[in-house]
Structure formats: structure tokens, C-alpha cells
TrEMBL record:
PANTHER family: BETA-GLUCOSIDASE 10-RELATED (PTHR10353:SF211), GLYCOSYL HYDROLASE (PTHR10353). It comes from Brassica napus. This is Sinigrinase. It catalyses: a thioglucoside + H2O = a sugar + a thiol; Hydrolysis of terminal, non-reducing beta-D-glucosyl residues with release of beta-D-glucose. Gene3D superfamilies: Glycosidases. GO terms for molecular function: beta-glucosidase activity; thioglucosidase activity. GO terms for biological process: carbohydrate metabolic process.
Length: 469
């Protein structure tokens, strides 16, 4: 498997991009800037067959592999009050979570499940009572299995209508209290992982000699799925703007997964390959959102495999995002594909061969203990870089840590954890314990702590004295 996929296993890299001596505090950011943390429905809620919820493609997918599943996860469905209390104690200003489509609308369309509806109303109410702004993601990899079985989910245009109807229920039922909506999470990498590489649900790809999916076509389906995602996003967004925005006064956007991309060498071809990778990975989604069409570099390579926007669709997609969510964890090197030794295994045609460039990971470090100093250094460096960008004119509005609490991870199950709160998944009560990063974020958010290295050292000695784990 190519290096790219390892990124899913180890998100944590330590960035030394900014100097730690440039201390800053919460108050250096605009007051309306939002600091939060995130989870998603399947990874946090558990209770997969309770109160009327039916399976999503993610349930099916996780049960076909031996790396755990979200059947129980953090049991957020029952423990949401406890978790919101932890968020409040941390001083979180916002919480990003997703709605399980099959909890709300078990058959994918039609009948609304009153218990699912009540759960999300209660969660949103609990957040608001504690002064935490809900940021809702409508779709986070968990398509109703019934729609997958009926017509193939995202590779069929029928998804646009069903997704829009699901979004309509969410806007109508939750929109008075929710002002921030992301339609689809990591749309670009979702299309690649699910339809080119096959390691995310529903697990489609073309056969190779070393890995076979049950079905799929890596040279066509990712583009078809991506196209339908853009159209579904645009359709939901248009509905929001026509029917809800004037009274609910919220914003709606799409999120993409973004690596930092750096040429592997200072050669011209690696520099060009890096630009091409930017076009393929980001321009694929961003150019239509801004200009209503795909980047020329992609059109050249895709040829007839490229879905085409009709004039009407192009107009609909153009300007359909009030904001763009950037999911970012790490930076990779980019090398022109043909400048390397040809692979011994015959390559299938997929997203990455089309891109004509390979991504090479930098060494990564992972920290799963309660004393997660590397995580603090990472978050601190990241927030510092965001502040620099804002000072430099970037209109960035918020920052969310992934994740608020250890959750079930798509590719690594419970093996790696990214939470600021540890969850003991072997303990029937799923006990939550703060990691050092939770204390750091608390201090940063309450403005009593700037982020100089001495603070971390001090906190660490205090923490080891009081830690029970
Ligand atoms: C994928 O679809 C293309 C275009 O229809 C076709 O030429 C190719 O053979 C298909 N590949 C596989 C692996 O099915
Ligand atoms: C995948 O399927 C192809 C034929 O479609 C076969 O040649 C190959 O050996 C299979 N690979 C694995 C790992 O089963
Ligand atoms: C870089 O890759 C492209 C496309 O894969 C290829 O056409 C080109 O010859 C390569 N350039 C060099 C200098 O190897
Ligand atoms: C600020 O913007 C300039 C011009 O785009 C760029 O060269 C510089 O690297 C940026 N600095 C930071 C800290 O982002
Ligand atoms: C997790 O819970 C189990 C069962 O209650 C317990 O035996 C174990 O010591 C706990 N692990 C940690 C690290 O607290
Ligand atoms: C601010 O956060 C720090 C670090 O977690 C904590 O020790 C302190 O009690 C908090 N202060 C207030 C006023 O909440």
C-alpha cells in the first residue's frame, strides 16, 4: 500500500514550523474566532441498533474487517451529557459533530425517527445550555446501507435528491440552533479512499494482484462520486439559501482534506508535479466551488472519464460554499511519478496514477499516553501558524482539534487515539480521563496560559502528580 494511506493511521506529526518563543494567547485572535474540537457520529455515538437506527455503509464495512467497529465506540449516544460537561469544563467555544443519517431517517428517505430526532435536539440543547456553538456536519462517511443497496449510493445521481431531502430535515429541525453547517466531510479524500483506493466504505476499487475490492473501477468511480458530491452539496446549499438562511442566519460550506504539499527535490519536474498534485487534490473540489468548473490539468488527464457540469449545474456549484473547511494534519513530499523506478507490480489506473505524482510521508510520531506532550506541541504550533496566517490577511474563522475525545478511527480502529480525553475502551463504563493536552487547551482557552515551553513543563510536573492513570 502506498505511503499515502499511512497518513490515516498516524495523523500526528510534530510541526516545528514556528518558533516556540513567539508566545501568544487566545486574546491575540479575533473575539468571534471559534476554538473547538470535533468527533463524528459513527466514531463517537455507538448505540448502532438502538432506538430505530439502521446500518450505514460504515457499519457494514467495519464488520467486514478485523479492526474493531463503532457498535459501542464512546457510547456518546448515552453519555452525551457527560461529554458536553467535559467540553464545558475545557472551555470549548464550539463542537463539531455529525448527524447519523440512519438514526434520523432509518430508511434513508421518508419516515423521520422520533427518537433519533430527539437525540440530536437534546445534544444541541445541551451544548447551547453550556454556551458551546454546534457545528454540524451532515455527512461523514456513513451513507444509509439501504441507499447503497438500492442504487449504488454516491456513484448514482439519485443521491443528490436523497441527500438534499436529508439536509432539509436537518435545517428545518435544528437550524434555529445551528448556525454552522458542513455538508460533506473531506469530500475529496472521501471520494479517493472509498472509490479509488477502496479502504473506506463502501470499499470500491479496481482489482490488483495484491488487493481486490468486491467491486469498483478506480479510473472512473472516484470522479463520478466526487461530481455527485459537489452537486449534492450545491443542491443542499441552494435549498438552505432559498428556504432557511434569511431567518436562521447560518453559513454552509464543504470541507476538503488538505495535505501540505512540498516538492521532494528542487528539480523542475517535482515542482511541476507538486502544482499538479494541488490541482488534483484540492482544485478538483475548490475550482468548481469558486469558478463552476474543474481545473484544466485534470480535464486533460481525465478526458472522457470526466463528468461534465451542465451550464445550470455549473452555476449552481459556483459560489455554493460560504466557507471551505480545511481538514489538515500533515505535510507530504511530492515527486513526479516517472522520475522513480517503475513499480514491480503492474499498477492499476487510479486517482494517483492519473495525478502522475507520488506523495511521500515525513516521519511521524504518535502519542497515546496521558502525558501527550507531542500533541500539545503539535496543536500549539498549528494554532500559532493559524495566527500568523490571520495576521497575514487570511480570513480564517475557527479551529477545531481532532478529536475532542478518543474515538473509533476509520482505519486504525481503537489502536491509535487522537483525543484530548482518553477513553478506556476495555472498561465497561468507558471511563474518560483528561490527557495533558486537555489541560493545555483549557489554559489556552481561558487565557491564563500563553504557550511558551515553560508552561508545558510546569503543567507536566503538576499533571504527573495528580494523574490517576
Ligand atoms: C473502468 O471503466 C473504464 C471506462 O468505462 C473501462 O475502460 C475500464 O476497463 C474499466 N476498468 C475496470 C477495471 O473495470
Ligand atoms: C484480484 O483479482 C484478479 C483478477 O480479477 C486476480 O488476478 C488477482 O490475483 C486477485 N488478487 C488477489 C489478491 O486476490
Ligand atoms: C513527469 O511526469 C510526467 C507525467 O507523469 C511525464 O510525462 C514527464 O516526462 C515526467 N517528467 C520528467 C522530467 O521525468
Ligand atoms: C505572508 O504572505 C506573504 C505573501 O503572500 C508570504 O510570502 C509569507 O510567507 C506569508 N507569511 C506567513 C507567516 O504566512
Ligand atoms: C481500563 O479498564 C479496565 C477494566 O475496568 C482496567 O482493568 C484497566 O486497568 C483500565 N486501564 C487503564 C489504563 O486505566
Ligand atoms: C484555566 O486553565 C488552567 C489550566 O487547565 C486551570 O488550571 C485554571 O484553573 C483555569 N482557570 C480558570 C479561571 O478557569
Amino acid at each position: 500500500m502506498r505511503a499515502f494511506s499511512h497518513l490515516f493511521f498516524s495523523f500526528l506529526v510534530i510541526l516545528f514550523a514556528i518558533s516556540c518563543s513567539d508566545a501568544f494567547t487566545r486574546n491575540d485572535f479575533p473575539e468571534e474566532f471559534l476554538f473547538g474540537a470535533a468527533t463524528s457520529a459513527y466514531q463517537w455515538e455507538g448505540a448502532v441498533d438502538e432506538d430505530g437506527r439502521t446500518p450505514s455503509v460504515w457499519d457494514t464495512f467495519s464488520h467486514s474487517y478485523n479492526r474493531g467497529n463503532g457498535d459501542i465506540a464512546c457510547d456518546g449516544y448515552h453519555k452525551y451529557k457527560e461529554d458536553v460537561k467535559l467540553m464545558a469544563e475545557m472551555g470549548l467555544e464550539a463542537f463539531r459533530f455529525s448527524i447519523s443519517w440512519t438514526r434520523l431517517i432509518p430508511k434513508g428517505r421518508g419516515h423521520i425517527n422520533p427518537k433519533g430526532l430527539l437525540f440530536y435536539k437534546n445534544l444541541i440543547q445541551e451544548l447551547r445550555t453550556h454556551g458551546i456553538k454546534p457545528h454540524v456536519t451532515l455527512y461523514h462517511y456513513d451513507l444509509p446501507q439501504s441507499l447503497e443497496d438500492e442504487y449504488g449510493g454516491w456513484i448514482n445521481r439519485k443521491i443528490i435528491k436523497d441527500f438534499t431531502a436529508f439536509a432539509d430535515v436537518c435545517f428545518r429541525e435544528f437550524g434555529d440552533d445551528v448556525k454552522l453547517w458542513t455538508t460533506i466531510n473531506e469530500a475529496n479524500i472521501f471520494a479517493i479512499a472509498s472509490y479509488s483506493e477502496g479502504f473506506a466504505p463502501p470499499g470500491h476499487c479496481s482489482p490488483t494482484s495484491f488487493f481486490n475490492c468486491s467491486t469498483g473501477n478506480s479510473s472512473t468511480e472516484p470522479y463520478l462520486a466526487g461530481h455527485n458530491m459537489l452537486l449534492a452539496h450545491a443542491s443542499a446549499s441552494k435549498l438552505y439559501k432559498l428556504e432557511y438562511k434569511s431567518k436562521q442566519r447560518g453559513s454552509i460550506g464543504l470541507s476538503i482534506y488538505a495535505f501540505g504539499l512540498t516538492p521532494y527535490s528542487n528539480s523542475k519536474e517535482d515542482e511541476i508535479a507538486t502544482q499538479r498534485a494541488k490541482d488534483f487534490l484540492f482544485g478538483w473540489m475548490l475550482k468548481p466551488l469558486v469558478f463552476g468548473d474543474y481545473p484544466d490539468a485534470m480535464k486533460r488527464v481525465w478526458g472522457s472519464r470526466l463528468p461534465v457540469f451542465s451550464e445550470e449545474e455549473s452555476e449552481k456549484v459556483k459560489g455554493s460554499s460560504d466557507f471551505v473547511g480545511i481538514i489538515h494534519y500533515t505535510t507530504v513530499y511530492v515527486r513526479n511519478s516517472t522520475s522513480t523506478t517503475p513499480s514491480l507490480i503492474p499498477r492499476r489506473q487510479d486517482f494517483f496514477t492519473d495525478m502522475g505524482a507520488e506523495t511521500i510521508c515525513t516521519p511521524m510520531k504518535h502519542s497515546s499516553t496521558l502525558q501527550d506532550t507531542p500533541r500539545i506541541e503539535y496543536i500549539q504550533a498549528y494554532i500559532g501558524a493559524v495566527l500568523n496566517a490571520i495576521k497575514n490577511g487570511s480570513d480564517t474563522r475557527g479551529y477545531f482539534v481532532w478529536s475532542m475525545i478518543d474515538v473509533y478511527e476509520l482505519l486504525s480502529g481503537y489502536m491509535y487515539s487522537y483525543g484530548m480525553y482518553h477513553v478506556n475502551f476495555s472498561d465497561p463504563s468507558l471511563k474518560r480521563s483528561p490527557k495533558l493536552s486537555a489541560s493545555w487547551y483549557t489554559g489556552f482557552l481561558n487565557g491564563t496560559m500563553d504557550v511558551s515551553p515553560q508552561d508545558i513543563t510546569q503543567m507536566q510536573s503538576h499533571f504527573s502528580g495528580s494523574s490517576s492513570l
